[in-house]
Amino acid sequence: LVCDKKTISCTACLVQLFVEHLFGGAEVFLLVVMAYDRYVAICKALHYLTIMNQQICVSLLVVAWAGAFVHALVQILSVYELPFGGSNVIDHFGCDMYPLLAPACTDTYFIGLTVVANNGTMCMVVFVLLLLSYGIILSSLKTHSQEGRRKALSTCSSHIMVVVLFFVPCIFIYVRPVPNFPIDKSISVFYTAITPMLNPLIYTLRNSEIKNSMENIWCKMLNIDR
């Protein structure tokens, strides 16, 4: 898109497909981990440091990336042996499963079902589980102080916003049969561009240490004493 190049090799297209689903799968698993982290922090605050120790955090991170790798590998294996011929135009701005199935010179109905099972079902199940988990977390706030409820609501609301922005477009794209709709390209922008751009704003800039550091840097640039 930056170089205004309209062509891509088959190998590069498969690499792009793998990388897209690797990071997308990692996002899914990390959102689950973050929901668990918020549950422990809010519902079991006194045991948080014991439960979420460094070993557990590293293990959860490894599991998230391992799951994402397997998910992305399944995508590559699904389309690697497909015979392509005739039209070589992909009606999309990136290489994804459904756009790649369109120019294939074979029946791709079964592969389309595997996409629904692998991508669509995973997105739907995880989305429902995340909403239920945040519902449990928010319902537990009744026993917290007003300040505690405010902080928990502030954190959970940002997480829920990311979950909705990421999963709703994914569910729309992947939980239906193979045929593509013209709106698919616009919808896919949400989970490929908009949500990743919002992540630093939602997570990093909400961190008190980061905000204090940025304020200090800003004050030094303007020569303002705090």
3D structure, described in words:
This protein is mainly alpha-helical and 226 residues long. The protein contains eight helices and no strands.
User: Nearest-angstrom radius of gyration?
Assistant: 21 Å
Outline, from the CA principal axes? globular
Beta-strand level of the residues, as a percent range? under 5%
Report low-confidence residues grouped into runs of 5 or more.
none
Write the layout of secondary structure elements.
Blueprint: H1 10-43, H2 48-51, H3 54-79, H4 97-101, H5 109-139, H6 146-174, H7 184-204, H8 208-222
Helix pairs in contact: 1-3, 1-5, 1-6, 3-5, 5-6, 6-7
List keywords for this structure.
single chain, 226 residues, mainly alpha, 73% helix, 0% strand
TL;DR of this structure?
The chain is mainly alpha-helical.
